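Pipeline run #58 for the internal structure catalog. This entry was flagged by the ingest filter as a single-chain record with no existing model, so it goes straight to prediction. Upstream metadata was stripped on purpose; only the residue string is passed forward. Reviewer on rotation: M.T. Logging verbosity set to normal.
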Amino acid sequence: MNLRYAAIKLLRAMITLWLVVTFVFVVLRLTGDPTQQLLPDDIGPEIRDYYRAAWGLDRPLWEQYLRYFEAALRGDFGISFRNSQPAIDLIWQRVPKTLELGLATFFCSLALGIPLGVLAAVWRDSWVDRLTMSFAVFGFSMPNFFLGILLILLFALNLRVLPSSGYGTWQHMVMPVFTLATAFAGAIARFTRSAMLEVLSRDYMRTAEAEGASRFRQVWWHAFPNAAIPVVTIVGFSLGGMIGGAVVTENVFAWPGVGRLLTSSVADRDLSIVQGIVVLVAITMVSANLLVDLAYGWLDPRVRVGGQERSR
């Protein structure tokens, strides 16, 4: 892959992360003084001033930003206002559980969405196609919190075959993974079908058929690799979007991950925790998009050549 193409994409990713870090800092500071939320109303002004000084909130905004940005570059997001522990330590304690849920959802979405999309394209306008598209529409139109509640009512309260919340066994993962994977598998199936329909109508597919290639070889050896770029796009977006979807799903199922920590930290106005989690989510999404861009350049040389011409 051309190094200039990769360097341009990496520079854009770094600029995006800087903008996110700056935006988060400014917005959270505009929402008010955290001591008003964390400390009792009847507390004395001297104690309130003590905590504002201890948390660095008494300094000018520009100085707070410089100190925050310098510390963020080292991976230090400050001390949790609520727990008096390093924010990054509290976040990393939750990351493995969110990764466990997210990766299981990601691979289930791929394993379900890509084959369904390919089958829907191969058997266009058949019952397979209609059933797949119905599933896709259901998946990305059903809110996560509503689907999660329905699953709890059915499998935990009525059938009593799965735990309604918590963490620890594979049974605890079934409903959260299904809730998240339904939306992403539907989107992947829809994009895969559209990409495959376009490729299946190309001349080289008719050539492969005329040469006697089996139907399996036509679909998976000739068609699917050429339809991979649109699929890579939605897969990259899904990887980043799963972190955002996990915020709702983790709260519905009381999953002890980063999403649930973010919700409680926003309610407590624990700025250090909120800043750290938002930056972590931004890094995940920017990294996913960067990998998609680099995959573009590897899958289709026309993409990187066009990018080089526009950058001149």
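catalog note: The two ends are 18 Å apart (CA to CA).
catalog note: Residues 304-312 have pLDDT under 50 and may be disordered.
status: ready for reviewer M.T.
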